[in-house]
Every structure is written in C-alpha cells, then in structure tokens.
Write a structure and sequence with these properties.
heterodimer, A: about 110 residues, mainly alpha, 3 helical TM bundles of succinate and fumarate reductases, 4 helices, about 85% helix, B: about 240 residues, alpha+beta, Ubiquitin-like (UB roll), Fumarate Reductase Iron-sulfur Protein, Chain B, domain 2, five-stranded mixed beta sheet, two-stranded antiparallel ribbon, 7 strands, elongated, binds protoporphyrin IX containing FE, binds iron/sulfur cluster, binds FE2/S2 (inorganic) cluster
Chain lengths: ~110, ~240
C-alpha cells in the first residue's frame, strides 16, 4: 500500500534531507574550483567566464537556494529542539526572523 | 456527494505463510459507517476467514488500528465518509510491525520497546506508606499529564519513517511514555529512564518529522515529548541537573 505522509513537517524534513545531500555533493566540487585560485589563477578566471552563461547562473541560484533552505531548515530544527516554546511563540519568532532577514538582505543588495 | 449504495473495499490478505495480496469486496454503504464496521461486514457476510482485531469499538483499547488508504488510523472511530477515495477504501495491517494474518499486526515489538524505554513504574514508596499528594499545577505534572491518555494503539509507531528505517529505534509512543514518567513526581529512577532513551535507537534518532503527532488519534504530541527527552539527556550529558 502506498503510504500517505505529505504533511508540512514531513515535507520540511524531506526538503532538509534533499538540500543537505545536494550540498554534500556540491561542496567538494566547489572547493576543487576554489583551489585553482591558489594553483592556477588563469584557469579559475577561464572557469569564471563560464558563470556568465544563463544555465550556470541558474545552477548557481539553485545552490544558493539549497544553502538558504538548509540553513533556515537547520535553524528551525535547532529552535524546535532547544526552545521549549509554545506553537504561537514559535510562529511569531519565525515570522520576525524571516521579516528581518528580508529587510536586511534587501538593504544589503541595494548597498552593493 | 453522489448517491452510492456500495463501497469498493480492498483488504490486504496474507501473513508469514502466504505473501500479502489484495482482495476486493463490494460492501453496502450506510450513512454512518466506520472502517471497522466495513471490515466486520466483510468478515460476517463475505469471508469468515478474514482476520482482524478490535475490542472496545469506542477508541479506548487501542487494538483496532490499521492502515486506511495509506494512513494509520483507529478504525473504530474513523468514519468511512472521512477517508473515502472516490468510492474506494484500501485497508491493510499496520506498517512497521510483523503481520500475524491479514489485518492483525503483531504488537510485540511495540510493547517490547515500551519496556526497553523504561516505560515502567519505579515506585517512590511502598504500599504501607501514605499516598503521596501531587500538586496538579507544577510544570512537571503538566508535562506528564500531556501524555497519559495514550491508548497504545501503535498508530504513531506505524506512521514513523525513522522506525521504518531503523529497527532499533524505540519509537514515539515508548519515548513519550519515558518522558511522562521522567516528569512524574512518583517515579523514583529518572536516571534509569534517561539511560534507556539516550543510547542507540533512543530519542536522538528522531528527525522531528512529526508524523507521530500528526496522526495520533488521541491528539497527543509524542514529537514534543521526544524533544523534551533530547533536552533532558543533553543537559545531563553536560553535567546539568533537572
Ligand atoms: C548552513 C549551516 C547549516 C546548518 C544550520 C545545518 C543544520 C543541520 C541540522 C540541524 C541537521 C539535522 C537534521 C535532522 O535531524 O534530520 C542537518 C542535517 C544534515 N545536514 Fe546540515 N546544516 C548546515 C550546513 C550543511 C552543509 C554545508 C551540508 C553539506 C555538506 C549539510 C548536510 C547535511 C546533511 C546531509 C544532513 C542529513 C539530513 C537528515 O538527517 O535529514 N549541512 N543539518
Ligand atoms: S517526530 Fe520522531 S518519532 Fe515522530 S514520526 Fe518523526 S521521527 Fe518518528
Ligand atoms: S501516542 Fe497516540 S498514536 Fe501513539 S500509541 Fe499513544 S495514542 Fe496511539
Ligand atoms: S476497538 Fe478499541 S480503540 Fe478501536
């Protein structure tokens, strides 16, 4: 029998696991590319021109998205596990963090 | 909802000796009908060899839980109209437990883990002492009260994917029991409880996915109980006291 389990907390768990695995697969690649900065700067520059391509841009967006999802998912879990707050308190705290993140990131993006 | 006079009910048949296979029955539909009524109708009118289990029929005993359209449920208090998929229902034995036969799951592993989690009474007094007065408003008592209505139905245990992936995991109900006793002023051995739930397969195996709390028919919250155990065991590890 197919098991039905798509409730919000389970989906959050799935997202966290998939983003974590995605990051684990990506990081070695990331460090390998960065190593060219030390060993072969020309090669790194050649590689970085690639990042102008739309497909690679999309992939980059995906990775930053994975990290953001995993970071906030991880903070959510840490809050859930370590702060014995009531459900409404947690909702308000999450809303406050998300709101301030939105404002400060918009500010940062404007500034650079 | 369209008028219908029959339901198409698929039940899983089989057990250790015969592989599980689905069998479909047409069952008369009524306005007020529980999933347990449907299963009983099949056993009484269509196939007397269908094996299933129930006792109280009113959500007290915890013996009637089955998978219904992929979700573990207490069948005696689950109305057909709430779970109908089109005109069909699929009923199977509880997940994550061995099958005795057909719809009857073997609850032994579930209860064995209840004991492994020190879900047993460690008395503070003997029968010769006066009964201890309990203050109902303390934080500890309220934490303990939150979990005492568990009917041992194993719905949470069947819903939990960590149990599915890790046979040693004690599971939500046993861990919730441990947390209840840990907060009980009448329990004399809190350290034994924390020892039992901090090893392999203990509370730290839980991934907080919350299927236990979502599906518990008594609206209990094993997830929060497990989070409590995580804090208590971690505090003890770093030398903190309760
Ligand atoms: C950005 C800061 C990060 C935070 C706050 C964080 C937090 C967490 C937490 C709390 C868990 C436990 C989840 C659970 O119990 O199910 C976890 C799991 C995991 N993390 Fe991270 N993490 C971070 C970065 C990373 C990075 C960079 C990687 C990749 C190397 C990664 C890979 C994983 C994987 C594979 C899991 C297992 C997923 C699971 O158990 O479901 N994490 N993370
Ligand atoms: S919260 Fe923990 S015990 Fe409950 S279903 Fe998820 S893993 Fe299982
Ligand atoms: S916690 Fe809820 S779902 Fe789990 S055994 Fe107890 S009553 Fe059943
Ligand atoms: S028959 Fe007792 S809980 Fe369903």
């Amino acid at each position: 029998m197919k098991v039905a389990r798509a409730h919000p907390l389970w989906l959050a768990y799935l997202l966290h696991r998939l983003s974590g695995l995605g990051l684990a697969l990506f990081l070695p690649l990331h460090f390998w590319v960065l190593s060219y900065a030390l060993n072969d700067a020309a090669k790194l520059d050649a590689f970085l021109t690639l990042t102008e391509m739309p497909l690679v841009k999309m992939a980059e967006f995906g990775l930053v998205f994975l990290l953001a999802v995993h970071l906030f998912g991880g903070l959510r879990l840490l809050a859930l596990e370590w702060l014995p707050w009531s459900a409404p308190q947690k909702t308000w705290a999450a809303a406050a963090v998300a709101g301030s993140f939105l404002v400060s990131t918009t500010f940062l993006l404007q500034a650079i | 909802m369209p008028e219908r006079d029959h339901l198409t009910v698929t039940v899983q048949r089989g057990g250790p000796d015969a592989p599980m296979r689905p069998q479909t029955f047409e069952v008369p539909a009524y306005d007020n009908q529980t999933v347990l009524d449907v299963v009983s109708w099949i056993q009484q009118n269509a196939d007397p060899t269908l094996t299933y289990r129930f006792a109280c029929r009113v959500g007290m005993c915890g013996s009637c839980a089955m998978m219904v359209n992929g979700v573990p449920r207490w069948t005696c208090r689950t109305h057909v109209s709430k779970v109908l998929d089109g005109n069909a229902i699929e009923v199977g034995p509880l997940r994550n437990l061995p099958v005795i036969k057909d719809l009857a799951a073997d609850m032994d592993p579930f209860f064995d883990k209840w004991v492994s989690a020190e879900g047993m009474h460690h008395p503070t007094r003997t029968r010769d002492d006066a009964i201890e007065a309990i203050d109902p408003v303390t934080m500890e008592r309220q934490e303990a009260n939150a979990g005492i209505e568990c009917i041992n139905c194993s719905v949470c245990y069947s819903a939990c994917d960590t149990v599915a992936g890790n046979p040693d995991y004690l599971g939500p109900a046993a861990l919730q029991r441990a947390w209840t006793l840990y907060n009980d002023a009448k329990d004399a051995n809190k350290d034994a409880i924390l020892d039992a739930v901090s090893g392999t397969g203990g509370c730290h195996s839980c991934h907080s996915m919350g299927s236990c709390t979502t599906y518990c028919p008594n609206e209990l919250d094993p997830l929060s109980a497990i989070l409590g155990l995580k804090r208590a065991t971690t505090k003890r590890f770093f030398g903190g006291r309760k």
